[in-house]
Amino acid sequence: MLSQTLVVARKEIIDHLREVRSLWASAAHLLMGPVIIALVLHSLKNAPHAKTVEVIGSMAAIFLLVSAFTGGMNVSMDMLAGERERRSLLPLLLNPVSRISVIMGKWLAIGIFAAAGVLLTFGAFAAVFRVAGIPLPPFSRALFALLPLAGLAAAVQLTISTYCRTAKEAQTYLSMLIFLPMGIAMFMVFLAPHPAPWILTLPIIGQQALLTGAPPSPVAPLLLLITIWCTALVLQYSASLLERDEIVYGH
Fold first, then answer.
1. Which residues of the chain are under the pLDDT cut of 50?
2. What is the distance of C-alpha 246 from the center of its chain?
3. d(CA 82, CA 243)
4. For the chain, give me the number of helices (H) and strands (E)?
5. Are 157 and 111 spatial neighbours (Cβ–Cβ below 8 Å)?
6. What is the DSSP secondary structure assignment for residue 94, as one 8-state letter?
7. What predicted TM-score, i.e. pTM, was given to this entire model?
8. Contact 117, 150 (CB under 8 A)
């Protein structure tokens, strides 16, 4: 099963690395946040007030959280939805490869692009804050929680793509999915800055708290376990979809 998963993942990664325009589009989305923050910092020619720096750090945290969902979006919309549209999904499933291996391989490919998007955004923010002479917010310690979130985002995006019949339809729903982490992050920053400890175990909310400087709590390991558990559940459900005739043969 592991070898089949790696073969599927390798094929998907190679295929999507050839889509240069898609990669440039993803990079543009990922770098939008650092560019906005750079422009805001540039407009503050004098040393910004401490409160202003805190607000800018919160804005950067939102962009970094969203990057976990942006990095793999363009890849995921073409994986299963695009294959259904091109009528190439059924020939793929006729090969002696288990459904879970297909899902795991595609998820691994999306997850790698999503993790790369997180690292690219983090590197861009590090450069922006360094040029501005402002200490980088405590993003580095949140990376250990952001990367599992990128895996969960990849699983959700793959499941949505499995449901959709065309790549255009998948693009619509995946674009709407971006508003989920953005909305939650903005709510936590501006309306609920001090949540109860148990809330910090929930994916997205826990990662956002770490990004905005909340001290690591005893529930941080539980956050990682819950994120990984949710990812496994979503992947299992996505694999079960490939057992349905209406998914394989179309509606």
1. none
2. 28
3. 18
4. 13, 0
5. no
6. T
7. 0.90
8. yes
